[in-house]
Amino acid sequence: MATQVLQRETWRESLRSLKVATWLGWQIESNWTDPFLFAVYSLIKPIAGAMILVVMYLVVSGGQTGNPIFPYIYLGNAFYIYVGSVLMGISYAIIDDREHYGVLKYIYVSPIQVYFYLLGRGVARTLTGTIAVIITLAFGVVVFKLPVNFLAMNHALFWPVFLIGLVGLALIGILLAGVTLITARHNYFIGEAVAGALYLLCGAVFPLDVLPKFLQYIGLGLPMTYWLEGLRRAMLGTSASPLLAPFSNETILIILFSSTLLVGLISLSFYRWCERRAKEKGLIDMQTMY
Amino acid sequence: MSQMLAVKTENLGRVYQIKRKRGESGPTTLVALEGVNLEVRQGELFGLLGPNGAGKTTLIKILTTLLTPTSGRAFVDGIDVVENPQEVRRRINMVSGGETCGYGLLTVEENLWMFTQFYGLDFKTARERIQYMLEVVGLADRAKTKVYHLSTGMKQKMNFARGFLNDPQILFLDEPTLGLDVQTSRILRDFVKRWVRERPGKTILLTTHYMVEADELCDRVAIIDQGRILACDTPANLKKRLQGASVFKLQTTPLDTLEHFKQLPGVTQFAGHRRNGHTELNFILEDENALVKVLDAVQAKGGHLLSLEKREPTLEDVFIHLVGRGLSDEESPPERIL
After folding, report:
1. What is the ipTM of this complex?
2. Residues B68, A276: C-beta atoms closer than 8 Å
């Protein structure tokens, strides 16, 4: 009976943490004094990001947008916006709360469930990331005639892959939040460094096949590889990666689910370990002034 | 027995590791707490009095689950802070003075509302408590102001208000009036006193290096220095330790060295420092006759007496009696202090 009451209390705390952190995250994200500027920024940033890659591709390929590698690159790049948004959104919550706002210790003293709090802080970034992805995709379809039909695509594959991938990103974000918690000087760069490494290793803008063998193995161990592959198959109906081509859609989904589960277990355990270390070293309320 | 205690520590210790660069000399550890045994009863307003760096904040951090001890155990409301921190957090809150924390882009009201939600307060209770606390700290007219528009003192007041929102079973106040003006400090002290008196069973553990604050507010006071509890009793009983002793405060023209005052016959304890162009000397003497030797010594050193005051012992005198220096003095060797 006592255990049940405790479990109910823990769930209530989890929901509260998620709800309040989501609200807080949105307040921070939408803190633009001028909504017009916010709208312009939201529109220009993803399009400019996509254009950099498209121009590079056009220069290298001699202007061939009909090549199957073009939609491969464009889609990978568009969905990769989520990687930066979610990873940074969650791991930066620690930096913001501890270094910028100085409230992390008060949050830690209150009865929150920290995983849910961190996830909540990532929700707002996921929403703004979604707007950027939609704008980028729409721009690709209209301007570059990207062969994507949102109504006719494989929804049965897209939605499970899409959602599992987002959960996987959030879990990696928690892992990075753990690293941030125990890191003093270089914590601002950790999210960017990991996002950059994943950009190279999970086939975001080129197939894994072009990487050296040992990097291919690392790429095949990352859930994001299967996430991007699944999204491309769902939207384009085909894959441009010979390395992943032998896997059926179902296999891609199963590997994505399993690897996300594994990453989740590792991330949550790692965060708990970091939290313990942070308490041992007195880092929860540390303000480095770096 | 421990069920009746709000806070209990058993041989609590905390040692910090100090990172040193290669070739850099100096100690590699810092003992912040050593063998601390403390019992705070439910319903008490308990004070920890000690100078900066005495270990007060370290103790509060351990009790609020922010820091793990390196030895010993600590219990809050009978719950082990290391084994079950979440259960401890459901019963406590804390305020650190001198801090200007808060989400600058949110209003004062929104900042406080956020914390009420972490504690699961319903909408009506949350609104009522926020309104009440804002009136207590004098920020009611700033409820809709974004925190980045507030002055440092106002941010501190908001942080003070935050600590009371969940009506905690045990509240930790770490130097709550640090840096605040005299009038605000008095208002907050009055509120702290009223809060604990009006709520039987609620406990406050307050750390301070302001002797007056400890004396005025606390049912019992523990004097802490260099990580050790030196004495623990009611302020009246602590001061009784100096009953029979004569306590004098002298102000003289600036003196170069003060160390020799300790060696004078009849001087039990002595602490002195320079302040605003003069030297202040605090003596605890065995009896008033020893004062003649003190005055002779001042004259011998070329000093002139500016004022002489005999007074009742204060907690600061108790501290000087126990430690050999004043609460506001630095923790350096005497010759460096003087």
Report:
1. 0.87
2. yes
